[in-house]
Amino acid sequence: MTRVALVGNGGIGTQDHQTAMYEPAFRRHPAFEIVDNPDDAEVWSIAAPLAERGKTIAEAIRSGRHVLADKPLAATVAEAQEIERLAAEHGVVVVPAHHQRLGGALRSAIAAVRGGRVGLPWNVQCDFLVAGGDPAPGGELVNFGLYPVDVLHALLGLEVRRVHATGSPALVTLLLDHDHGVTSTVVCGRLPVLRDVPPGGPAVHRYRISGSHGVLAVDATKPALSVRGTSFTGPVWTGPGTVDALLDVLAAGIATGRAAVGPSDAVRAQRVIEAAQRSMETGQPVETGE
Amino acid sequence: MDRTGIVLVGAGFIADAHCGAIDADPRAELVGIVDADPGRAAAFARKQGGIRYETDLDTALAWPGADAVILCTPNDTHAPIGLRVAAAGKHLLVEKPLATTLTDARALAEAFEATGRVLVAAHTHRFYDYGRAVKQTIDSGAIGRPQLVRLAILGGWIWPDWSAWVGDPVRSGGHALHNGVHLLDLATWWLGGEPTAIFARGRKQTAAELRIYDYLEMVVTYADGATAVCEMSRAHRPGSLAQRELLVAGTAGIVEQGWDGESALVFGEAGTATLPAAGGNGFAAQLGAWLDAIGGAPPAMPVADAVRAVALGVAVEESIATGRPVAVTA
Ligand SMILES: NC(=O)c1ccc[n+]([C@@H]2O[C@H](COP(=O)([O-])OP(=O)(O)OC[C@H]3O[C@@H](n4cnc5c(N)ncnc54)[C@H](O)[C@@H]3O)[C@@H](O)[C@H]2O)c1
Known about the structure:
The structure holds two protein chains of two kinds. Chain A is an alpha/beta fold.
């Protein structure tokens, strides 16, 4: 079993994903055991406040440890690139928590689109809307904009060349231009508290991929049962959890030396987020420079 | 009861929907039909039980009992024909778009303002069951202040061959003016806000040689910070599976209707298709509202909103051409 230490209980604002998400997932995962002393661990699960996160990750890498990092991996593109460089230099695996793409519906969708099931994709529409929970102080773009951006890359395999953003940091619309004239649109943000959606849970999470030969409509809140009762009405997720799947990725990465989710994914997503921030400031589309 | 006598101009695809509405409304009477093509005019008149028909508009406008016109001709003819209707002192229900340029749209608005006759543009989605239900839900306060509209009307190729006027950007005004205005108007009506900017992207999906964009994505930003993302498509495959999807998010809740919110699904040997539920007749509701306005009620589709829809459609085409956001001034 691989020994894991839990390092940090912060994030953006009041977030403590360590306690809420990573710790329980590590406890139930067959490949890992949690140890108290970070010096005894082969893996650090890092959920330090965003301002200190990059520094803590760098420290872990330099001491030869693998890392599971809360998202976003780093506060800036430059910081994420430095982590990428360091991880390669020290031969360790760094897995940022881009776990949404690992949901059952999206994994199938990614395989279907990359396998040509809708022909050549030409547009993707996405909504990533969370209901209730604590608003992120700097806006939700930085908090979870990277999730749908990461999924888009997994679906299309195309870089984002240009970003136009409108709305507010709490509820933002991103218009992305990819290679080959492919476009995508992401509406991302936080809705008010909705009945029967757990605080901070997904209210709408879906993708429509339009292709030359068909359309794929994916509800990423599934696979789920629909349960209706006197005191609860709502979906009950049935597949493996996305964080559990992320730990599978980490375990496989440690075993093989290469993880399916890595710092380059974080660099790529952060580049889009920063371009979106510039677009919000200027009101104009911004080239990502990629 | 004194019935409003209506002359239909343009005996094409959409004329039947207007005829059905007139038949269903005891306050209206179809006086006759005008079409530039005498064969089409005659055939239509025969089908309607032998009403009058004409190729010359001015002759028809002088028919006894002609109080009003429903105009169903190609988009670039709306302004010149509409101005003649105004000059003849008749009321006008004009198919959308009101006109293909903002100058023409304003000229029509001014001409009808001057005559005191009622001008209404056929933004029919305001009168469909779903359009009204969403508006009522927002107005009831159930979702708080609306901040986001997502509206998609997706379907496959429906137009005829290369000679179709809808495919000619000069005759149709382009797809943003031809169909885009439906969504631009509806989203803006739902939100109740003032559009300030448009960012749009267009695609020629069905054929590279198309002169119009068969897929449009039109993003409107409003003065209060709200956003509307409107997709209009004739590019989706398979064409048999028409989809309409909407989501409105407010400060206190959301209202949604997925593609299956109104339609059943047929999956058979011939493929998969949506089967829309039977319901209210949007064209009848639209006609009723116009007749109400002729009777003195406030219009359900004010002229200023029709002019604004043209401004938005023009801004969409400009944004696609420049790749930049365009400021909107209606
Ligand atoms: N509200 C809606 O949902 C809806 C749906 C479809 C079409 N429309 C609108 O309805 C209008 C007509 O569309 P359509 O699909 O019925 O077109 P169509 O091509 O089927 O019919 C147009 C008719 O107008 C006639 N015509 C052309 N120029 C004329 C002129 N100068 N004077 C008299 N007749 C003339 C043609 O001969 C033809 O019979 C357009 O403005 C279109 O945008 C609205």
